[in-house]
Write a structure and sequence with these properties.
The protein is an all-alpha fold. The chain has 19 helices and two strands. The longest helix is centred in the first third of the chain and has 30 residues. About 11% of the residues have low confidence.
Length: 515
């Protein structure tokens, strides 16, 4: 438990009153577990007829069993147990099993009347559900997550419920409108959870999943065909779209990034619902990436709508990082969004064109000036910041590619070098300040275990200097190159004093400076 001393926590558990209460709860839990498994065995050993499933408690007098096994009883038991302890995955598995069983055994008339049920038509209360009651599952998982915000099983069940509901309606436009409203509410729920714990990576992962589903719901730009000339007309003249099936409801972003995704691009966000999981609950599959094939047809998102979704997430990650520079989940999300933001900034330029490379360096510059510079001076020993700094440097370096067989544009080269030299100057200033504040007297007595600071700053400095050396590899007998080698060696020598446990690693890095 966070914020509690182990001795005090154990002392409370050993108190007689506490032990008595825990023992009583354990007995109740064991009783419910036995009842749950017994009911499930009875249900699948001799499934009751459809007409008898809802006759619980109405058995004829003299019958041995008091009531026929009922999926509703199993659902009630799982809800009761999960509300107390949301972690056991087998309870969620049984719940999903019962939900699918009820839906698959529903009479055809209930399936045909599914849309009427959603619109508020008062039908027989004993009718079987033809689609998943999403509100019940969302309410249950929300309650469970309040008890344990880091429950893997509860978060997965919430994902599963959303995906199953998306595949469960025969309606079209109304279904997608309703689904988008639900997903927007899910994003608001993520905001609330992240206000309580901004580093809850379960919630960050779920937010990426919800955004993936939101993109898969399709756009609002409707394509029509003119009766006179057969030309395609769009509400958005700049971004024509065509109606097609979006067949990925696994949380993968690649399914709806078709307008900007190219063959040589990396996968933006992979699927979170596997092919086996989809098949296990009766959803059709066929995608190589493990996503499920949808039974709905949607209008693909326009590039304007794509940009709105991505930039909303970009701004959200910015706000969370500004709240806490140690938020590794927010930095990770930002690293995934960075290539997408570059796509929109480059305004449709071809890959590896000088203008796109320049935009990449400009974006790296913005990240350094707006995020990293403040972060490293605020928390110089927080490795989260330096990991993202390493990512930005290597990402910008990868974008410095050869264009049309010629070297990169001189303006782009100068911009990249300028960014690296600015990093060197700022990190050196940070090191000087920290050394002055932390080491008075014997400067040789430095060790990480004794409070020596700026280990990560030296690593960051070495990274930038090594990148500059690699960038200047074609320059021979350059005085700047020699100076860079000497400064990089000084960083490694200092790291050997501060962090002697990794001396051999630093020696290997030093040998590469002159190779």
């Amino acid at each position: 438990m966070h914020g509690q001393k182990r001795a005090e926590y154990k002392a409370r558990l050993l108190h007689p009153d506490t032990r008595a209460k825990l023992g009583s709860k354990a007995q109740q839990w064991n009783h419910l577990s036995e009842e749950l498994l017994k009911q499930r065995r009875r249900l699948f050993s001799s499934p009751p007829p459809l007409s008898d499933i809802d006759t619980q408690g109405k058995a004829n007098e003299g019958d041995a069993p008091a009531a026929a096994p009922s999926p509703e009883v199993l659902l009630a038991l799982t809800e009761k147990m999960l509300s107390v302890n949301p972690d056991p995955s087998h309870l969620w598995n049984i719940r999903r099993e019962m939900l699918v069983y009820l839906i698959q055994t529903a009479p055809p008339s209930a399936i045909n009347d599914a849309d009427d049920d959603q619109e508020g038509v008062d039908n027989d209360s004993s009718a079987k559900p033809s689609i998943l009651d999403i509100e019940v599952e969302l309410k249950l998982t929300a309650h469970c997550l309040q008890r344990n915000p880091k429950s893997y099983s509860a978060w997965f069940h919430r994902k599963w419920a959303l995906v199953y509901f998306m595949n469960g309606s025969t309606s079209q436009q109304e279904h997608w409108t309703n689904m988008k409203s639900i997903l927007q509410s899910e994003l608001e729920l993520c905001v609330q959870f992240l206000q309580l714990d901004e580093r809850n990576f379960h919630c960050w992962n779920f937010r990426r999943f919800v955004v993936g589903l939101l993109g898969s719901c399709g756009g609002s730009d409707v394509t029509t065909t003119s009766e006179n000339d057969g030309e395609v007309n769009n509400d958005d003249d700049d971004e024509p779209t065509t109606t097609s099936a979006v067949d990925h409801f696994s949380g993968s972003w690649s399914a709806w990034m078709h307008q900007i995704e190219e063959e040589d691009k990396e996968v933006w966000m992979g699927p979170q619902i596997s092919q086996n999981a989809c098949r296990a609950v009766g959803m059709s599959t066929g995608s190589k990436d493990g996503s499920s094939d949808a039974i709905k047809s949607t209008t693909p998102l326009s590039k304007r709508e794509l940009e709105k979704i991505v930039m909303n997430e970009w701004d959200f990650s910015t706000a969370k990082i500004q709240d806490n520079f140690s938020n590794g989940s927010a930095f990770h999300y930002r690293s995934k969004l960075l290539p997408l933001v570059l796509e929109f900034r480059s305004s449709g330029d071809s890959a590896s064109s000088p203008s796109e490379v320049y935009e990449a360096i400009a974006l790296a510059r913005d990240e350094w000036d707006a995020i990293l510079l403040d972060a490293i001076f605020t928390e110089p020993d927080d490795q989260t910041i330096w990991f993202y700094h390493r990512f930005i440097v290597t990402w910008a370096q990868r974008n410095m590619v050869v264009v049309d067989g010629a070297d990169a544009d001189a303006e782009v080269t100068d911009e990249f070098e300028g960014l690296l030299y600015d990093m060197v100057d700022s990190i050196q200033e940070l090191i000087d300040v920290e050394k002055e504040d932390s080491f008075e007297g014997n400067t040789q007595d430095r060790h990480e275990s004794k409070g020596a600071k700026c280990k990560w700053a030296y690593l960051g400095m070495h990274l930038v200097l090594s990148t500059l050396l690699e960038f200047k590899s074609n320059e021979v007998d350059d005085e700047d190159k020699i100076e860079l080698c000497e400064r990089a060696k000084e960083c490694l020598d200092e790291l050997m004093r501060i962090d002697p446990d990794r001396r051999e690693r630093y020696q290997i890095l030093e040998s590469k400076l002159y190779s």
